[in-house]
Amino acid sequence: MNAPAPGREAREARGPLRRKGIGPSPSGWLDPRGRALGSWAFAVNRVTGLGLVFYLYLHLGVLSLLLVGESAWNDFLELATTTVFLLLDVLLLFGLLYHGLNGIRVALVGSGVVPNRQRALFWAGTVIGTLALAYGALHILGGT
Ligand code: HEM
Prior knowledge:
- This protein is mostly helical.
- The protein has a single domain (37-142), classed as Up-down Bundle (3 helical TM bundles of succinate and fumarate reductases), CATH 1.20.1300.
- 70% of the residues lie in helices and 0% in strands.
- Helix 2 crosses helix 5 (83-110) and helix 5 packs antiparallel against helix 6.
- The protein starts with 7 loop residues before the first helix and ends with a helix.
- Protoporphyrin IX containing FE is lined by residues 42, 45-46, 49-50, 52-53, 56, 99-100, 103-104, 106-107.
């Protein structure tokens, strides 16, 4: 017989899930009330994941300027090194760090390696991510 899923006993001790229907109501997606930390973490993970997909295509589009020629690339570099664009780089770094660190947390919890420490892992990731973001932001903005 298969071994019980990690954390199953604790879940069963809390009793069955009480839901009014299958999944959240359509307005529930936009209702911020009464959400647990994990729910916020998931929402931000989704926003950053979609943001990274958007950035990937944007990045490929921008790189294709290289095909246009040297002056097109130099014009872009001038724009890309303005403070507003460098701040967008910091936002990108935040998205990468959040999504990556939270992804590692989700993988560790979901695979049962660390099933009952999702909150501690979230705050550990927050500390590591904040330090890395501060370090990166200083370097990115340091040249302006
Ligand atoms: C740093 C490495 C990364 C790790 C460890 C990671 C990990 C994960 C994990 C574990 C999930 C599932 C989350 C869940 O089910 O709760 C996920 C979702 C996702 N990831 Fe990543 N990821 C990484 C990089 C990326 C990159 C580079 C992109 C985009 C180019 C990306 C785009 C997405 C998207 C769109 C989702 C689906 C979000 C959703 O449905 O809510 N990820 N990632």
